[in-house]
Amino acid sequence: MTPEIMQRAMTTPVPADLISVGYITGAYGVQGWVRIHPYSIEASALLHVKTWWLGRGENKGEVRSEVPTEVHDVEKLEAKRHGDDVVARIMGVIGRDAAEALKGSVIQIQRSHFPVLSDNEFYWLDLIGLAVENCQGESLGVVADLIDNGAHPILRVVQSKENETTTTSPAREYLIPFVAHFVPTVDQKNKKIIVDWGLDY
Fold first, then answer.
1. Could you give the domains of the chain?
2. pTM to 2 decimal places
3. Which of 121, 128, 150, 188 is deepest in the core (most CB within 10 A)?
4. Residue-wise pLDDT tens digits, 53-105
5. Exposed (0-12), middle (13-18) or buried (19+): which is 139, by Cβ within 10 Å?
């Protein structure tokens, strides 16, 4: 970590609305750029927001729900797509060794700074925890996670405890493509998603 970054870490208060959006997998090139693996295919926040917050993660950023420690803010100078990843240049990070030292750092961004989405667009984090019902009014559970399979996101819906038939069997999971054909309604106001999906699928 450079002296410039340490100085900012000591003087800047940590915002309360930070959201983990990806983690640094290592250096990119020899000039101090870093390679970042986004937590979702939608990386607009990484590309457009200028101030990032870096923290250390117990699992090197591979778990979205983890809470990073030793959080400090940095200024992003440049960022661009590179395949499924994002590569970026951060102020104060010069040379490959400095970039490699940030490997495993979790990147967080203030939720209030996320770009505004168009209608029928959603941030993955806003879907986590929403109740899921099918068109017949039957409860399938709640959204536990989203999976990127390349073609489109997939909702991972986990049956709630009260709907389990036994206490020893694992909770039933449904993997539902997040496309209009199978997901006709996302009602964020009422925290509910309606899907065209049977209980026995």
1. 3-113 (2.40.30.60), 124-195 (2.30.30.240)
2. 0.68
3. 128
4. 999 865 444 444 456 778 999 999 999 999 889 999 999 999 999 999 999 99
5. middle
